[in-house]
Amino acid sequence: MFKKLNIIDDSHKVLREISKEVTFPLDKETKDIIEHIIKHLTYSQIEEYSEKYDIRPGMGLSFVQLGILKRIIVIVDEYEEGKFDNYVVINPVIVSNSKEMIAADAGEGCLSVNREIDGHVPRYARVTVEGYDMDGNKIRVRAREELSIAFQHEIDHLNGILFYDRINKDKPFYTEDEMRLI
Ligand code: ZN
What 3-state class would DSSP assign to 51? Predict the structure, then answer.
């Protein structure tokens, strides 16, 4: 029986705190939460389940969004219709990034922000992220385009940053000349 996650919204101050480095081995509870997040995010992107369980679609979540200040992010990327890649990165760090910037033309959403917020969020077009998998093995992920945005969005959460912090208040939208919009 699937139970949807209890995701906290941005009225909670904990979302502004800095999450703490995780040590290995992971305890069973932490592993179970990771599995639960993967399932929740996968179901959220499959219409049948998102309706059945009333879950808002989303591709990423960080532990702080459950009120747990651990540096763990999970991304479930639908790379092809109905096919998903899971990324679990513990203590993630962006070790390199492109000069080129992009922004999601439709803006970004967040499972902790239950309202529409308009504006382009500038992000690196490509990032390389290093961290650890659930077994404590060092891993490196290269991400581009939408997946790159997802990694930057989730890693921001670990540092208490929400996507709308990065929207220029005076000029929330870029033109095609100023920014590659995807
Ligand atoms: Zn978010």
Answer: helix
